[in-house]
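User: Let's play a game. I give you a shape written as tokens, and you guess the letters that built it. Ready? Here's round one.
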């Protein structure tokens, strides 16, 4: 388990795939810092860090992980008991 990973979840509140990840996190009690790409500054930040503006994007120690199922699988593997990430 990687309790020292620095995580940020980039999302858009109207994105069904983002809502899927957020719902999973809520159900498991997993909390990570969230960044809504609804503003230009955050969109540019995501593009700079991850290479594209696709959401959801879980930034793990500066490395971008895309695709809701992959993000859920990663979170479930690293935080199976719902620890605060």
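Assistant: Ready! My guess for every position:
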């Amino acid at each position: 388990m990687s309790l020292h990973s620095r995580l940020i979840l980039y999302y858009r509140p109207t994105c069904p795939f983002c809502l899927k990840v957020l719902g999973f996190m809520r159900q498991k009690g997993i909390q990570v810092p969230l960044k809504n790409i609804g503003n230009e500054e955050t969109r540019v930040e995501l593009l700079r860090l991850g290479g594209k503006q696709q959401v959801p994007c879980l930034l793990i120690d500066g490395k971008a992980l895309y695709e809701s199922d992959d993000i859920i699988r990663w979170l479930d593997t690293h935080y199976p008991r719902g620890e605060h990430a």
